[in-house]
Design brief:
Elements: H1 23-29, H2 32-35, H3 39-55, H4 61-79, H5 92-104, H6 106-109, H7 117-153, E1 158-163, E2 166-172, H8 173-198, E3 200-201, H9 217-223, E4 228-229, H10 233-238, H11 241-267, E5 275-277, H12 295-318, H13 333-355, E6 357-359, H14 361-367, H15 375-384, H16 389-406, H17 415-419, H18 429-433, H19 435-441, H20 450-464
Bound molecules: arginine.
């Protein structure tokens, strides 16, 4: 082996340097403290790259065997916690490559032929993200299933639906639960799309212009489970769209979770008392013995700030960055890791919480009887009797004002009382003034009438394969 000319700085890239790196710079620029979690992907990528180099005559069969054995041994060491990651080697790629060279010598020093850390980090990151997409899709399915089970359990039970957090119209609890099912179903399809778009291999784009060595990008792409290869090496080297898309999908999930969390916090308050969150998911107060706090929804709501922050970090990172790779891009990993971890733990705990959630159906049903919530039904009743809607709205507004002054609800009003507002109102009005009548009249597509909700529930169960 010829004397390595990289000893001036002791770095793998040190040939043109005469001085070592300042300790402060090493500390500042290292990413090993967080990118070590990519080691399995890095090793898989290196093995595929070596196999391709060997198939194309750049490495001998013996050299390939040495590289494969060396990488497997290193992987085992890392698995067992016996591997020492060194900060002076900057990142996971250099740590593993250096260990390979130390272990097997010249064959190891040939591994980096025809690739750069720029395509290497991208291939690792994409493989990591692909796995994260799969894991989050699975967690989304568990969450969707939890909503469907709750919807099935409470089918036929009613609650107030809200706009502006004011009682608006009575709805099925199941309908409200299926609203979340829809949100998380959209998130699922976003995650599926994101995975599809990112699953093209960057390996072989090398630094940014491609390679002059006889490499075969399709070979490595297939070996690593990619659907194909990226088309343009200049784009590939600096592309982080996929990381932004993933984190934006995570953000959407966490936003949906935060809305659910907010409702759970409200509903579990004494003011609402709509739900009981199981003791397993609450904590007490260190000073107030009577307290049972909904910490889990509160934390999920709070953690949405982290995920939004991660997305902002990534977007700001890429904004205005000239092509192609810039070291700025090393800052992409921590926000992505944090977003993936936060969304995964939040989803798994919310699914568990939902399984242990009890609705106080009596209190919820009673709540539908206050607030003149069938006012729209009365207006619709008049519309069906040919009163223009705006006129009907005003008539019912007067009836509601009368209820408020007299401490009554619409169904409590006698026919004489109702007739003061419009002589078109006759006895059949009581069919629409009742809460049940109101809910079950709303059979427009996507509405809260029991038939529609049951259809939606069956469709969801079918989608999840639990019918
Ligand atoms: N640790 C680096 C990163 O995460 C790897 C790529 C370094 N490339 C370079 N040209 N310095 O981005």
């Amino acid at each position: 082996m010829t004397e390595q000319k990289n000893s001036g700085s002791g770095k793998m890239w040190g040939g043109r340097f005469s001085e070592g790196t300042a300790a402060s710079v090493e500390a500042f620029s290292a990413s090993i403290q967080y990118d070590s979690r990519l080691y399995k992907y890095d090793i898989a990528g290196s093995k595929a790259h070596a196999a391709m180099l060997s198939a194309n005559g750049v490495l001998s069969v013996e050299e390939l065997a040495e590289i494969e054995a060396g990488l497997s041994a290193i992987e085992k060491e890392i698995d067992n916690g016996d591997f020492e990651f060194r900060r002076e080697l900057e990142d996971v790629h250099m740590n593993i490559e250096k260990a390979l060279i130390e272990r097997i010598g010249p064959a190891g020093a040939k591994l980096h032929s025809g690739r750069s850390r720029n395509d290497q980090v991208a291939v690792d990151f994409k493989m990591y993200l692909r796995d994260q997409c799969d894991a989050i899709i699975e967690l989304l399915d568990a969450t969707r299933k939890a909503f469907v089970l709750v919807a099935r359990r409470y089918l036929g039970n009613l609650m107030p639906g809200y706009t502006h957090l004011q009682r608006a119209q009575p709805v099925q609890i199941a309908h409200h639960m299926l609203a979340y099912y829809e949100m998380f179903s959209r998130d699922r399809s976003r995650m599926v799309d994101c995975r599809k778009r990112l699953n093209l291999s960057p390996l072989g784009c090398a630094a940014m212009a491609g390679s002059g060595l006889p490499i075969d990008r399709v070979h490595t792409a297939e070996a690593l489970g990619f659907d194909g290869i990226t088309a343009n090496s200049i784009d590939t080297s600096g592309d982080r769209d996929y990381a932004i898309e993933f984190t934006s999908t995570c953000t959407m999930i966490q936003l949906h979770l935060s809305r659910l969390s907010e409702e759970l916090v409200l509903w579990s308050s004494q003011e609402f008392n709509f739900v009981n969150i199981s003791d397993k998911f609450c904590t007490g107060s260190s000073i107030m013995p009577q307290k049972k706090n909904p910490d889990i929804p509160e934390l999920i709501r709070g953690k949405s700030g982290r995920v939004v922050g991660s997305l902002m970090t990534l977007i700001t990172l890429v904004k205005g960055l000239p092509l192609t790779y810039n070291r700025d891009l090393q800052e992409d990993k921590e926000p992505v890791f944090d977003a993936a971890d936060t969304v995964s733990t939040s989803l798994s705990i919310i699914a568990e919480l939902l399984e242990n959630l009890d609705f106080n159906t009596k209190i919820m049903a009673t709540a539908t009887e206050g607030g003149c919530m069938t006012a729209t039904d009365l207006a619709d009743y008049l519309v069906m009797k040919n009163v223009p809607f705006r006129e009907a709205h005003a008539i019912v507004g007067n009836a509601v004002a009368y209820c408020l002054t007299n401490g009554k609800e619409l169904p409590d009003l006698s026919l004489e009382e109702l007739a003061q507002f419009s002589d078109i109102i006759v006895k059949d009005v009581y069919d629409v003034l009742s809460v049940e009548g109101s809910v079950n009249s709303r059979i427009s597509a996507g509405g809260t009438g029991i038939v529609r909700v049951e259809e939606a529930l069956v469709a969801a169960e079918k989608q999840l394969g639990i019918a």
